[in-house]
Amino acid sequence: MAWRFYKYCLEKRPLLTKACTSCFMMTSSDAMVQQYEIYKKKEIMNEYEEKAGPDAPPVNFQSGCPVNVNSPPSTEQDNEKMLHHDFARSAQIGTIGFLYSAPLSHFWYQIMERTVTTRVTTLALASKIAMDAVLFTPIAIGGYFVFRTFLEGKGLSGVQWKLENKWASAVQASWYFWPACNVINFSLIPTPYRVLYNNVFSLGWNGFLSHLNSSRLKTIADERIEVPEAFKVHNGDSMPEIWTHKYARFICVCDHCRSRAL
């Protein structure tokens, strides 16, 4: 019954239906990811406190930064805020799904079908996968960062920083995941249902990224115990030793940390 109603809406109002579906799916995905992240953060904090003892500096989860090693040590109240669901973040991601991701994908798939006209199945599939990876993915991810950053209120400087520091790595990471998914999407899924297909696989993609981030947080917590000198702040704003240390790769480069490092 629900599927029949979805097909009816998709036929009558295709763009609006895809936008609503993306909004719901992306909001739900973020909600599940946040609950997983909260669970892992609590687990990491508890394990860290048991190993490091009461005098060790706390692992800092403030402002979306895994460590924020250059900011003042976090308080229990600061970390407590990061252990609750961020409804503003979910609303932002849902808004992006409704206003940006769904419309962009909707028109992109139409353009792709009109562009790739060969009747050779394997050639058509390879062409679509290549076009999606080379043309669509960089634009889609860049636009996502721009949209998300403005919703977060960080302005043009925040957009510039994300594009300079996160865009390339995000595009490269997507090339490991989406081309394989698109083999099915472009060969078996009818064009009207491809946005929905992407929404479903985005659940797994976001969960995978969250798992990688949690693994990084665990590594940071362990290194804080084993190599504490790598995480010390020297002379207030200056950081002469940190960035040349062999564990510097574990130090966050969020907006705050980066501004303190310059």
Brief sketch in words of this structure:
It contains 9 helices and no strands.
Distinct helical segment count: 9
- Percent of residues in beta strands? under 5%
Provide the helix percentage: over 70%
Structural class: mainly alpha
What coarse outline follows from CA principal-axis ratios?
Answer: elongated
Rg calculated over all Cα atoms = 21 Å
Main pleated-sheet profile: none
Which assembly state applies to the chains in this document?
single chain
Q: What would the average pLDDT be, to the nearest integer?
A: 78
How is this structure best described in words?
This protein is mostly helical and 262 residues long. The chain contains 9 helices and no strands. It has helices at 2-12, 14-52, 76-81, 87-115, 121-151, 155-165, 167-187, 194-226, 255-261. The longest helix has 39 residues, at 14-52. Mean pLDDT is 78; it is low at 62-73 and 233-262.
Keywords:
mainly alpha, disordered C terminus
Task: Record the SSE blueprint.
Blueprint: H1 2-12, H2 14-52, H3 76-81, H4 87-115, H5 121-151, H6 155-165, H7 167-187, H8 194-226, H9 255-261
Helix pairs in contact: 1-2, 2-4, 2-8, 4-5, 5-6, 5-7, 7-8
